[in-house]
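Quick one, tokens below:
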């Protein structure tokens, strides 16, 4: 019964964190509060249900507040910095916009070919860009072109968003982020 109550409290606190993020508050403070709350719930649960394997207080605090952020930063920070920098270079120099214009000229008045080429260039662009800024910048260029070609809005939007996600799947920054998060999780859950 204790595990169920603690699970419900964790779900409620997670929904609170989602609300906190949506309101635009400081995420570092939110993550700190969330980590402290969940660690406290783990200690309370271990105290109330001692059949679980004992948690070492100092080791757990060290893993949550020291090893976790340090591992996260070492695995991701450099990749995020250089990935964002390269994405900014693509946007500021106009490389992405030029590529899109050239694709439209290449496709001519064949909407399917033009849409396919636009989606390929968009996916290729997002293998190096991340964030909402580039999405909006590219959408302002691509979506009017697709609609001017007579492609229905729903299909154009789906194709555009799908091409963004295809590029993000191959994005090295996101890959490093996922790999780093997985490594930090393994360090915290399965310390050696």
């Amino acid at each position: 019964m204790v595990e169920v109550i603690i699970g419900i409290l964790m779900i409620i606190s997670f929904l609170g964190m989602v609300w906190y993020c949506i309101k635009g508050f400081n995420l570092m403070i939110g993550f700190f509060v969330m980590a402290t709350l969940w660690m406290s719930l783990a200690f309370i649960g271990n105290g109330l249900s001692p059949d679980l394997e004992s948690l070492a207080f100092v080791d757990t605090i060290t893993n949550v507040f020291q090893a976790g952020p340090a591992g996260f930063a070492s695995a991701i920070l450099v990749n995020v910095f250089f990935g964002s920098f390269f994405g900014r270079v693509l946007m500021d120099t106009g490389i992405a916009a030029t590529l899109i214009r050239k694709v439209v000229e290449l496709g001519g008045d064949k909407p399917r070919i033009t849409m396919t080429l636009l989606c390929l260039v968009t996916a290729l662009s997002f293998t190096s860009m991340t964030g909402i800024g580039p999405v909006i910048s590219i959408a302002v260029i691509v979506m009017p072109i697709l609609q001017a070609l007579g492609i229905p809005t729903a299909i154009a939007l789906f194709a555009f968003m799908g091409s963004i996600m295809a590029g993000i799947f191959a994005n090295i920054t996101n890959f490093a982020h996922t790999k780093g998060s997985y490594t930090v999780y393994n360090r915290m859950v399965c310390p050696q």
